[in-house]
Amino acid sequence: MRGEAAWTALQEAMQRTEPLCLNDPRFVADQLSQPDAIECRELCTMCPLRAACEAYAQEGRPAAGFWAGRKRGTNHD
Fold first, then answer.
1. 2 and 60 in contact (C-beta within 8 Å)?
2. What is the pLDDT of residue 2?
3. Any idea of the CA torsion for 31, 1, 52, 29, to the nearest 10 degrees?
4. Contacts made by residues 20-26, CB under 8 angstroms, sequence distance 24+
5. Which value, to the nearest 10 degrees, does the dihedral of the CA atoms of residues 13, 16, 17, 18 take?
6. How far apart are CA 29 and CA 49, in angstroms?
């Protein structure tokens, strides 16, 4: 699995610290308004798990969702 080590590291970090996106449906929405995207990006910049999230986003290349300040998936990454 691509990005498996980074995914494991992110999961372990989430056991110690909650990400700011937890239970926020905007981070998994298929479509985001521009204001929501800006707010998500701002939350990501303050999140204590941003580095682990970014590592997974780079290595695992998730097909969808908002990861480490960027909408991932078709035409977004």
1. yes
2. 81
3. 10
4. 20/44, 20/46, 20/47, 20/48, 21/47, 21/66, 26/66
5. 90
6. 20
DSSP 1-54: -TTHHHHHHHHHHHHHS--TTTT-GGGG-S---HHHHHHHHHHHHH-TTHHHHH
Q: How many Cβ atoms from other residues are within 10 Å of residue 5's Cβ?
A: 12
- In the chain, the amino acid numbered 40 is C
Amino acid at 16: R
- DSSP lists the bridge partners of residue 67 as 70
**Below-70 pLDDT ranges, the chain:** 1, 74-77
DSSP state of 71: E
Residue bearing tokens 């097909």: 63
